[in-house]
Amino acid sequence: MDYDAVLAALPQTLRDAGAPGFQVFPGFTEASVAKAIREDVTAIARDAAKGVDVSPALVVPENQALFEINPEDVISKIFRLHRRPIFIEFLKDPRVIELVVASIGEDVDCFLSQFIFKNSGARGQPWHQDSYYFPFEPLRPIVGLWLAITEATLENGCLHILPGSQSEGIKEHVPDRRINANNGYVEIIDHDMSGSQACLLQPGDLMVFDSHLMHRSTDNVSAGVRAAMVWHFARAGTEDPGVLRQGKRLPNPVNDWMPYLRAGRVNIVA
Ligand SMILES: O=C(O)CCC(=O)C(=O)O
Fold first, then answer.
1. Which of 114, 140, 229, 236 is deepest in the core (most CB within 10 A)?
2. CATH code at 213?
3. Would residue 96 count as lying in a domain?
């Protein structure tokens, strides 16, 4: 891969009509970084199970857990991780900075992070556009970074994307209709997804994608875990209306707006 050329073309690759809407960077981090991330997050899961206050991390249970040997076996996702030292270190990596600058610009906030365990038996997340969850002003640019922590295969529930769908508006999403669906899962049902493509990744591979890109993941029918770490970024100054609860506007509990880059330099107050 001609890395500099790919970076230079990234805004067009992610957002132009007729472009794919995503870019994969094979071997972006060492597999050892993926392993260290998994260990850090597993420690949160185990602390939470002991009753330790792990905030601001937010632990979400897995509704399809098959067994529980360790606390992390029954967790779907852990949100609000990006202020932890290991993730600050990741965000300070010059290659991450140049990728985010190329995707969004020089003034950027990180507003969402989640570790997805996707344990054996866990269901996939149905077809959706991340921007459905991000009713911000402005709506774009918003970009996600999806880092493979384990291998992602057809069997263990890799991502599938619909290339080019980033140039469509935000579609209607309906609640995931499966019995005992995971909290917050919604689905686009009225769209032809026949041009979709599976993203088979190795630990340390990174996928960058536009928040309008339609994607899903399938069920994990393997015996192992398919884990990933995901971050989302928006331009500094983006307004988040939060969520409406009993007539009141409240901050979205999974979002945590953290200034990240100002004039292209790291400006984190963790
Ligand atoms: O990794 C997955 O299983 C689903 C992730 C996803 O769809 C997302 O981060 O928007």
1. 229
2. 2.60.120.620
3. yes
pLDDT at residue 270 tops 70: no
For the chain, how big is the Rg over CA atoms in Å? 18
Atom of ligand 1 nearest to the CA of 152: 1
Question: Atom 7, ligand 1: which residue's CA is nearest?
Answer: 216
SS3 at position 232: strand
Number of domains the chain is built from: 1
Supply the pLDDT for residue 149.
98
pTM over 0.85: yes
Looking at the domain assignment, is residue 161 inside a domain?
yes
247: left (phi over 0), alpha (psi -120 to 50) or beta: left
Give pLDDT, residue 247.
Answer: 92
Task: Report residues whose beta carbon is within 6 angstroms of any ligand 1 atom.
Answer: 116, 118, 124-125, 130, 159, 215, 217, 228, 230
Q: Which residue's C-alpha comes closest to atom 9 of ligand 1?
A: 230
Domain containing residue 112: 23-266
CA of 130 to the centre of ligand 1 (A): 9
Q: Is 67 helix (H, G, I), strand (E, B) or coil?
A: coil
Which residue matches tokens 């038996």? 121
Quote the CA–CA distance of 104 and 84 in Å, as a whole number: 23
Q: How far is the CA of 185 from the centre of ligand 1 (A)?
A: 10
Residue among 130, 145, 217 whose CB has most ligand 1 atoms within 8 A, to mutate: 217
Kindly report, residue by residue over 159-208, the tens digit of the pLDDT.
999 999 999 999 999 999 988 888 889 999 999 999 999 999 999 999 99
